[in-house]
Sequence to fold (458 residues):
Amino acid sequence: MTRSVDELTTNPSYRAGVIDLLGVLAVGELLAFQRLASDAALAPGTREAAALSGMAASEYGHFVQLSERLESLGVDPHDAMEPFAVALEEYHRMTAPSDWLEGIVKAYVGDGVATDFFREVARYVDPETAALVMEVCSDFGRAEFAVEAVRSAVEADPRLAGRLALWGRRLVGEAVSQAQHVAATREPLIALLLGEDSDAVPNLAEIAGLLNRITSAHGARMGRLGLAG
Amino acid sequence: MTRSVDELTTNPSYRAGVIDLLGVLAVGELLAFQRLASDAALAPGTREAAALSGMAASEYGHFVQLSERLESLGVDPHDAMEPFAVALEEYHRMTAPSDWLEGIVKAYVGDGVATDFFREVARYVDPETAALVMEVCSDFGRAEFAVEAVRSAVEADPRLAGRLALWGRRLVGEAVSQAQHVAATREPLIALLLGEDSDAVPNLAEIAGLLNRITSAHGARMGRLGLAG
Fold:
């Protein structure tokens, strides 16, 4: 399955799909930036606040890169972001952390699932677009501080494990629910994934494989936090 | 009045003052980052949210610069920040905006007063420290988008002018109140300004002049927003 950069000019349906992809990524990064920075206020001290803030600041940098790419395609970034803003705001509204531990589990799990998903999607787009998607997904390592913090909190108070495991499941549940909402309304993005108008297609079996890989990576991440998946 | 970089090693009281100055700036930038980014959620659309987020992201960059400078002085940045965290958190807690307009007035007015103050303080420190302080205060221009937004909102609904003018006064009142609290408890920073142990001193008349300049610049900024100072 190959897509070429030329398709961005010769194939309007492919072009619309890529604009959707960059738009959802851009608004995702902008909202992740705002929410992570604001969750940093839950930190027990400036050291922990600075770690989450650093992660947030790098999301803002990605937002700028994606906006510039959309502009270079002749698209107003905010027009491209607009169709996805409500679903992503709803995700964050439904998953506002009530304390610092919930905040960092959300940063770790949410960033992880999103990164896995977009890295998979990168396989279905032209090399230039793929390189940008991989780049904005590249510093997942920034959330690693969560692992140590969650593990030692659960060690000190084992009762936390149940609540945080439930929280992790709720995060993924809300993400899937909003993703389904987007899928139902954004044809260009879905066509990009299903390849409706092209033989450069991932088929349904591939999509199922993709979802399995994402789910199992999520389980592995919960395990690293010391929590049931 | 001159201070030399050498005093950072030869004059423990001056060194303690500079560490306090960098510490209060660092925690101020970190909290401003978190609060601006979180206030971006009040924006009417992604365009406005992106403008405030850009301002927040640059505050995070300043935080990193200040932390690195403290480390190069052999100081843990978080130890230097700690004495100021409570007062600054209290300022933000007392001035949480209830809507987008209050948020951008706060960004514009708060950033303006802080920048004026630290630029004045830069006159009392060695050239290297001064250059860093001026640099982290250099992109006040980022808040300029607030001017247009506030003016056109007040034009559309003139009743807003009274509420926002009151809000501006409250912001400065809370800032002064927290600054007094800091002044009462942080001798090294005050000694830096009053020059207690040195003849490189601003005297009390100079301090009064500084406060007058800051107050009148604040009035001018409120005027630019179309609000009574």
Remarks:
- Chain A is about 75% helix and 0% strand.
